[in-house]
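A protein record pairs a chain with a discrete description of its three-dimensional fold. The shape at a given residue is found from the number at the same position. Here is what such a record looks like in full:
>
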Amino acid sequence: MIHLIIGNTGSGKTTYSNKLKKENKGVIFSIDKWNKTLFFPDKKENDGLEWFLERIERSESIILELISQLENSNTHSILDLGLSKLKHRQKFREFSQNNGFEIKLHFLDITKQTRLERVMSRNLEKGETFEFEVTKENFDFMENWFETPNKEELKNAVIVK
């Protein structure tokens, strides 16, 4: 089973993924951890969104290979990859469909105010799910970047309010 964890910044995707992992004995793929470990050390000040998107795309090609291995060993894959755009989510749906893998969408539909408070707290506390600071400017950018799943996408989804 492939679990797509969808929610805007601060919705609790990583916390939710960790809970799902315990329930399903799955493996989490968290793009924040990949970014922090593999890419942030090499990022230059003028590297922008396209720089990140290219690296995320490369990471996901490896992730897709690993998902296939996990599926063949009956292990759940939990994708905490941001999945902010419909097109990005469709990529994983098509991969699942083309390979005969079961997929489940989990949408964390949390208010903007709650998410902002969580992000600002996480920045200060630097707790278990902290990977890097999210500025108010980054948060606001993601508000406009994120595409809320439509009714068709949410069919048979788990919705967390």
